[in-house]
Amino acid sequence: MTTTKVLKFWCEPADDDSKELLMQQISLGYTYARSLDDAENTRRRSFRDHLMDVTPFKEAENELTALYESTSKENRDDAFRTKVELLRSAKKDVYISSKTTEPFVSKIKEDQDRYRAEVRRIRADLGPRGHGLSFGSYQHEEDAHLQSKSTRAPYLPLIRKRLPKEGTFAVHLQSEYKAPIQNVLDGSCRWVSIGSEMYSISRKVKYGSRTRDDSKSRGRRLRQVSLRVSGKGGDTKLIKVHALIHRMPVTGTVVWARIHTQRTGRKLRYSLQISVDNPVFPADVKNIRTAKSGVIGIDLGWRETDEGFLIATASEQNGNQLPPLIIPKEVALRGITHQRIDSRCETLQSTRDQKFNDIINRIRHVRDSAADWFREHTQHCHKWRSPGKVVGLFSKWRNNRWNGDDEIFDATSAFIKKDGHLWDWEAHNRTRMSRQIRGTYQRWADILASNYAEIRIENLDIKQAAEDFRKKAESEHQKDNNKSKSPLIDTRAKLQLAHVGHSLVRSCNRNECNLGRVDKRYTSRKCHLCGTKGKKTSDKLVFCKNKECALYNCAVDRDIRAALNIASSEVLEWVAGPLAAPKEPKERKNPRRRTKQAETISAAA
């Protein structure tokens, strides 16, 4: 059984040449992925045109479009979603039945042949042997393309959003080139190597050199990581990055190495990801306690309280209550409109919008006396919603000045500079908020996993549960506030509830604590003593209706009762810890192999 773990480290390019080469590879990967998506979307548009010739499919499509146009977003309730699912199911049934008809199959086969020819041309011109794209990045983009195809219906276009300069450079160590982790650390692997020299995080100079005294060094130390780029014609180059390497496994086999870039404001953030098969980490005696005992239950699901947002409630089997997981409002609502919170991110966004509206109004006022190209370019400036439109106008404006434009030109230049500063400030605050929330989750999970032998949680979808609660809270708010927007509308995204489960899994694996899932049904309604279903009230309390129970007619908090029931329930499956079964890795699809849909159509033909 093979287990794969992805190690993530902070990094940044070691020099300008490495940064330029990295951006070049990311640009090539973006061009290649966009070409594949364009070819696939062309085939899907033709496929949809053929389906629209089928009368039942066309009727279901027209009815679905009319339903969306006649129903506003505020009135899209459960009945609306049920109608949408029924219409989509009808379209899917028509699609499946149409695949066996001879005219439809012949048209699809012709489109499929043209699509395959186009894909072969793209791979020859923009692939590793054509345009210089690295082979690992080529495989990464192919896998992402296949993944996006599998998650969309065959008659819907692919939508993959990616900002400029964002992407992934990858090095894939195939079966014959897979390297043990020790070969990567000592530099004997020619594809990926991690040097032993230490570099300063601020000055990027080696420790022990004449330019820096080790005794006065402060902060963490970086190590240089080199990744090989196999280009066109057999040319090989190295991308060097300084990475903050920590907690490396003792043994294991490296199969992937990736450098991921992500935009935060105007800045780029880099991360190094190394995939290792069957890693073995050194025992951390400070975190692992061999004498742990006890079982606790955790009720996941959030609600607003006076102290903040209650994320999870924990309780032992004997009834002892543990400190709940609470995110303070000043952290969770940073960036969300709220009456009691002075939101810095919201203020920054409002300031940016105000300055953007001001510069648009000034541009509209000078259009009559401006050059012809300026009037044509700003013809629809009243519909602009992004500062990037102003940046594009300014780039063209630099080389096409006219007499008397000094004042508005300087004002536009000042707006771009100020907006970029505010954008960086806002993005930094949102990133810091996200880190604070994730850090709170991880510290809470570490405390539980290091003190108990078993942790039990509900077998539920955390994202869906939070979405259901958000819809209910917003509907109640609209009834009381004349259909105004609820301040809780974006809180679910800010709290990142899915990371609660991720933090528990990481902590349990690290501290040898077993994490199990139990049945989620009636955990908050059943009495934890007699098992009778109680009566719920609007103030989050539950009353036991069994007269023979010791808690008859006693009010108990629903979250506390759910945690007690979860702690005493039978485990359905173990998801982390020593008792968890290792997951089998998914088999990688060959990008040159025909997709499953093409094989089905060919078989029908």
Task: Walk me through what this model shows.
The chain contains 16 helices and 17 strands. With 605 residues, the chain is of the alpha+beta class. Among the domains are: 128 residues, no CATH class; 196 residues, Nucleotidyltransferase, domain 5, CATH 3.30.420; 73 residues, no CATH class. Strands 1, 2, 3, 4, 5, 6, 7 and 8 form an eight-stranded antiparallel β-sheet that branches. β10 and β11 form a beta hairpin. α2 packs antiparallel against α3. The chain starts with a strand and ends with a helix. The C terminus is likely disordered.
- CATH topological fold name of the domain at 295-342 and 429-576: Nucleotidyltransferase, domain 5
Gross geometry? globular
Structural class, by secondary structure, is: alpha+beta
| Helicity level | 40-55%
Number of E-type strands: 17
Mean model confidence by pLDDT: 78
C-alpha end-to-end distance: 39 Å
The parts where pLDDT drops under 50 for at least 5 residues are 207-217, 284-290, 335-342, 482-490, 589-605
